[in-house]
Amino acid sequence: xxxxxIFYFIGQAFVGLWRNGVMSFASVAVLMSCLVVIGGFxxxxxxxxxxxxxxxxxxxxxxxxxxxxTEEEIVAVGEQLGKLDNIASIRRITKAEGLAQMKAEYDVYxxxxxxxxxxxxxYEITYIDTEKVGDLxxxxxxxxxxxxxxxxxDLATSIxxxxxxxxxxxxxxxxILSVVSVFIIINTIKLSVxxxxxxISVMRYVGATGWxxxxxxxxxxxxxxxxxxxxxxxxxxxxxxYIETMVLTDLQMISILTFQEIRNTVLFGFxxxxxxxxxxxxxxxxxxxxxx
Length: 292
What we know:
By secondary structure, the chain is an alpha+beta fold. Helices cover 69% and strands 9% of the residues.
């Protein structure tokens, strides 16, 4: 009995794709379109998450010292802060630094000098556990030398809730779109197999085994998946780069990941989804015609 190596089946897969050029092109076009849509939707979700993460980074408390406090008293406040629990970091903001920051943000402080600077020294505290911030807030009010405590816990909690809701909605949309896209891909490949049903029947009649018939179609699915993934990757790259340039130029308040940061994830994600969809589509489509 003649033995066939793997390259024979790959060659037969290319022959089959060439003979059924129209259906092969349709399969590639549909798979590529679905991958671009899924990839684009996933990147939108990822960038929304990045922006909400930055906006929701409010786990900070700012404490203000007495404007008449001496350097020793201010340093003593910092030492007491360092002894508290649930604190990730502490950063001192001097009067001069606070004034420079205000001048950079507001024009009304242009006439203020270091000699008549009304701003107090302050400490910016980042806490760890949101659930224990109430105890931390109480402890801060008990420290001598601290005259004011700014706690943004309520705003941080609200933003976190909005973020969770938005991400849940988008993830569900992404999941639904993925299922629909894979369903379309499978049915498109089914059409390709259906167009060659007579060829499969003849092979069955002459005694070809199931694997002998199946492998070329499996490789066709893999080839379609790989080719579609590569085309979809470059299409996604072009579209994303255009949007990235537009956002960086016109919408500077919005953060967006560069394609260089995510290109490997996009490429391997497309490859994985494309190949799996191609194999599943071919296998499901062939099952009907391989039955005795």
